[in-house]
Amino acid sequence: MNVRDSRDTVDEIVDAWAREHPSLDFSPLKVLSRVSRLAKQLEKTRRASFATAELEPWEFDVLAALRRAGAPHELSPKALLEQTYVSSGTMTNRIDGMVRRDLVQRRTDPNDGRGVLVSMTASGRDRVDAAISHLVQAEAELLSGLSRADQERLAALLRRLSIEMA
Questions:
Q1: Which residue blocks in the chain are alpha helix, DSSP H?
Q2: 89 Cβ partners below 8 Å, 6+ apart?
Q3: I need a labelling partner for 141 at 20 to 30 A (CA). Which of 21, 48, 56, 112 fits?
Q4: What pLDDT digit, counting tens, does each position of 32-49 carry?
Q5: What is the distance between the alpha carbons of residues 16 and 87, in angstroms, rounded to a whole number?
């Protein structure tokens, strides 16, 4: 059977709704229910990837922001919270926990004696590098059923939808 001819649970749900409530257009469910289901699968895959490096997802988010910042891999707490979309109180608690686990350290900002910079430790760098390596391999496996061209088309469509929804 060709994959294009295959049906999934979402098809069954949409068909059932259309049968029970024929006056409504259920076509949005064909896209967004699949996105929701894929997001749940992706969340499980990401958690497993982060766990291989003994990181929680939120720890990965902070370390990834620091790693992407480039050498010397440090940012202000404000820059971190802007990149991770959490409140300042939450970020303070996260940094505290990560300091205790020797993933990051705080230091005084040399350009502003009142400011603080958060920098990644060697342990933090090793863990985030291990996690991202595992993650990209796992995500490549999730997408292996799509050609590179299909992946690019899907990425473009999802980008467009994301921009439209923002």
A1: 9-20, 27-52, 57-68, 77-84, 88-100, 122-142, 148-165
A2: none
A3: 56
A4: 999 999 999 999 999 999
A5: 42
